[in-house]
Design brief:
By secondary structure, this protein is α+β, with helices and mostly antiparallel strands. It has helices at 6-19, 21-39, 47-58, 63-74, 106-119, 149-159, 180-189, 212-227, and strands spanning 83-90, 96-103, 123-125, 134-143, 161-166, 170-175, 196-203, 207-208, 231-236, 238-239. Helices cover 45% and strands 24% of the residues. The mean pLDDT is 88.
Length: 242
Amino acid sequence: MAGHNKWSKVKRLKAVTDSRRGKVFSRLSRDITLAAKAGGGDPDGNARLRTLVLKAREANMPADNVDRAIKKGTGELPGVVYEEITYEGYGPGGVAFVVKVTTDNKQRAAQDVRACFARWGGNLAASGAVAFQFLHAGQFLIPREAAAEEALLELALEAGADDVLTSEQGFEVRCGIHAFDRVSSALEAKGVRPASAELAYIPTSTVPVRDAQHAEALERLHDALDELDDVQQVFSNEDAGD
């Protein structure tokens, strides 16, 4: 599940990449277009775009697709106008959800997300209703074999990171949203390749999963949201334990 265990989320996303490559390409294209629109089409001068281009390469996204997405963002090619919207809601058992959407039709996106929550035992909430249970920050997940702890700590903090957390799986670097590009560039310059790099909603409080039935209901809601074309990212605060 894509909840409290952040490393299991990375594994989940990799599985999604393998099984639904077309959907992943579509999500990456939208993100690349928005990044190019906001910061320009040159990856060397746009760290967010550079991170996404690297993700696209790792997903084996064709270079022509990447180039078209960039040119749509810079206006060199015509394209639809996307908006980024954040929805908040509650899933089964009171688990908090934050759903990031990129869409060219706000009404369709809202209806689809609302229908998912209603079908799988949840409900949409007003803006701000659940966001206080999350830290909105840059998050880099780095495998242990990718960096030495002391060197990573020094590198990340000098680049503007707020914290470096350690676990059996690896390191989690957190930074403010506005420091994301600086930290990303610093890691790249030293050859440190994160398993995941994103502007995330990180739970500050969690809701325990009661039993297998509760876990299955949450999994179904996650899957249903992931299937929606407009949904880019889903964050939640369930703690599945083992």
